[in-house]
Amino acid sequence: MTGANRGIGKSIAEALARSGAEVLAGVRDLDASHQVEAAPNVRPVRIDLSSPDSIEESFAELGDDALRVEILVNNAGVFAGGLLERQDVDNLYELLQVNLAGPIHLTRRFLPEMLKRGSGKIVNNASIIGHAPFPGATAYAASKTGLHGFTESLRRELDETDITVLELITPGVDTDMMDQVQSELDEHSDTSNWDHVDPDDWAEKVVKAIEDEDDELKPGGGERLAQLLPKSILDRAAKSGFER
């Protein structure tokens, strides 16, 4: 899995390990800033999504381990918020590479062996914003909406195979990234009353969805309702909750 050294990724890696899985915990670099806490059945590996070349290099470094991967969890992601016209263009391209192009590329590398073996699962963390895009996170919303489309298309493409696909419609989770989201949107929105779920609780639900062969894991409460609301109501909610 990718992005396994912090936040949701760390919790999912540990939950998978508790369920008996041997986890290759992907991090951008095998250095002190990307450490994975020691846990039974969890082994850190380098999976750098920052460029096509780094993905190819990371995949090659896995060696025979790449041939044994049964579940690929595309979790790693970066966030950029605020008004679009103020955002750094290089940061926008980095976001789209890590959040969208990277998972597609990595899936493309693991999929042939899964098909050859006749078993495997792709798990994509597409986020609630992929279904209910909110202002102040345009590029992030684009990346997650794109990942949602990729996930749905791939699931249908693999329908006649033994490879399954799971989309995680992840809600607001109490992580460092959520702190960043709230900080970058604080100028435009009142984020003080946002609901946060515990990352370990969400990770347990992810593992259960994998075990139950679900094709979608939805949030609960207001965020699930937001996913279902008509566009006109979402527009009104955005207008009342966001100021330029």
Describe, in plain words, how this protein is organized in 3D.
The protein is α/β, with parallel strands linked by helices and 244 residues long. It has one domain: NAD(P)-binding Rossmann-like Domain (Rossmann fold). The chain contains 9 helices and 6 strands. Helix 1 (7-18) crosses helix 7. The model has no long low-confidence stretch (mean pLDDT 89).
CATH class: Alpha Beta
Q: How would you spell out the order of helices and strands?
A: HEEHHEHEHEHHEHH
Determine the mean pLDDT. 89
CATH architecture identity: 3-Layer(aba) Sandwich
User: Helical region count?
Assistant: 9
The name of the CATH superfamily reads NAD(P)-binding Rossmann-like Domain
The largest beta-sheet arranges its strands as 3-4-5-6
Through-space gap between termini:
37 Å
Q: Domains counted in the coordinates: how many? A: 1
Largest β-sheet summary = 4 strands, parallel
Question: Shape, please?
Answer: globular
Class by helix and strand content? Answer: alpha/beta
- Proportion in β-strands: 5-15%
Integer-rounded radius of gyration: 18 Å
Q: Please mark out the parts with pLDDT under 50 across 5 or more consecutive residues, or reply none.
A: none
Reported by name, the CATH topology is Rossmann fold
State the share of residues found in helices, binned by percent: 40-55%
Q: Brief overview, please?
A:
The protein contains nine helices and six strands.
Q: Could you outline the blueprint of secondary structure elements for this entry?
A:
Layout lengths: L6 H12 L4 E5 L14 E5 L5 H11 L2 H4 L2 E4 L14 H29 L2 E6 L12 H20 L5 E6 L7 H10 L13 H13 L4 E2 L3 H8 L2 H11 L3
Parallel strand pairs: 1-2, 3-4, 4-5, 5-6
